[in-house]
Amino acid sequence: MGGQRLLDRVAAIGWVGAAEVATPERTVRLGIRARLEPFGRVRSESWMMNEGTPTTRTMIIEPDGGWTERDGKRTALPAHELRHQREQYGLYGYMLLRAPTAAAGNRLLAARPGLPPVSFETDADGRLSAANYTVFAPDGGEVIQERFTFDGTVTASGLRWPRRLRIAQNGVPFYTFVIDRFMVELR
Fold first, then answer.
1. Residue 87: per-residue pLDDT
2. Per-residue confidence (pLDDT) for residue 3, from 0 to 100
3. Is the pTM of this model over 0.85?
4. Nearest Cα residue to 60 out of 37, 44, 78, 36
5. Among 23, 16, 42, 20, which Cα is nearest to 177's?
6. Distances in Å between the alpha carbon of 98 and those of 91, 93, 109?
7. pLDDT, tens digit, for every residue of 59-114?
8. What is the H or E stretch that residue 4 is in?
9. DSSP-assigned letter for residue 51
10. For residue 113, which of 150, 86, 139 has the smallest C-alpha distance?
């Protein structure tokens, strides 16, 4: 079984990996462990690679809100940050083709109420190779034009997923994530 039948059975996906976040001041290296239900709940744990898991910050997004947890303290996400994070994690639901999607040449166009639309590019094998996505800024400022590129492959429960994800924001490299372990929960 594969294709859309498999995608329809995906209840949640998750991963463990390493990320690099480029800021004007420095590059931050993070360990990340995440689990998400497409267009639903998210739990993402991150920690500074040079400090290890004692520095873990957990972000949780539920249908009725979101918050972070660190050192036993829970802090609500500000509304702009919550919207931004829902949009960011919404891309993965789109990647699972969980929204109305139309083909246009080597592009897939998808939209879902409450999220910005996305335009995916596919390679010669029909796999997702890139995405263009516009999200609201986490501080409530201007929108951010994002360009995602995908390469490599990890597989779990028959589902192939990009091993490496890169994001450029407004044309500037911002984020690179490499999955070391990929998990899939099926219905």
1. 97
2. 87
3. yes
4. 44
5. 20
6. 10, 6, 12
7. 999 999 999 999 989 999 999 999 999 999 999 999 999 999 999 988 999 999 99
8. helix 3-9
9. T
10. 86
Long-range contacts at 45-50 (CB < 8 A, ≥ 24 apart): 46/19, 49/18
Instruction: Report the pLDDT value the prediction gives residue 2, as an integer from 0 to 100.
Output: 63
Contacts (Cβ under 8 Å, ≥6 apart) of 110: 94, 97, 99, 100, 101, 102, 117, 118, 120
DSSP 46: E
Q: CA–CA separation, 35 vs 17, rounded Å?
A: 12
Q: Retrieve residue 38's tokens.
A: 């497409």
Q: What is the dihedral of CA 49, 157, 130, 107, to 10 degrees?
A: -170
Q: Give the list of residues 6+ apart from residue 2 with CB closer than 8 angstroms, or none.
A: 158
- Determine contact, residues 180/16, Cβ cutoff 8 Å: yes
Q: How far apart are CA 167 and CA 184, in angstroms?
A: 23
